[in-house]
Amino acid sequence: xxxxxxxxxxxxxxxxxxxxxxxxxxxxxxxxxxxxxxxxxxxxxxxxxxxxxxxxxxxxxxxxxxxxxxxxxxxxxxxxxxxxxxxxxxxxxxxxxxxxxxxxxxxxxxxxxxxxxxxxxxxxxxxxxxxxxxxxxxxxxxxxxxxxxxxxxxxxxxxxxxxxxxxxxxxxxxxxxxxxxxxxxxxxxxxxxx
Length: 194
Ligand SMILES: [Zn+2]
Prior knowledge:
- The protein contains seven helices and six strands; from the N terminus they run βαβββββαααααα.
- By secondary structure, it is α+β, with helices and mostly antiparallel strands.
- It has a four-stranded mixed beta sheet with strand order 1-6-5-2. The chain has a two-stranded antiparallel ribbon with strand order 3-4.
């Protein structure tokens, strides 16, 4: 799986133009049909995704090109999931977060549990990205431990990304920098920082 920008025409152009690299071996990816159609639950309603598939010209592995609006194995867009994480760090309770976002409380609980379980991995990964993007960033101080530190690291890395490459939504940048497995289990590896 590879996380790409949500604008299909741009992804298509990059894919056909040989500008997308294989996440496993860095060789060039070429078009290879489409992945399974799915509906992503967005704050503005359902959005049908028909993600592109690509095949590596080096290792022959195939990858689904998931837009940065989404996270692997999650039915809700990353902006909604991110809003839940921010609300939790701000001290809101699960039930109230779920009510405000219009999502089932168990779903929100699942996101927050997974984020908390991975918090240290997330903090370390996004801190490496922040430093890779902006050498001026010194040591990052703790923001209060656990999920607050992890959220802070994502925010700092996203800000560094924006300063370098231009405007973007922090959670979509977070999805891309996590390779889509922000809320994967603790053994799903984040892609290397480049
Ligand atoms: Zn490859």
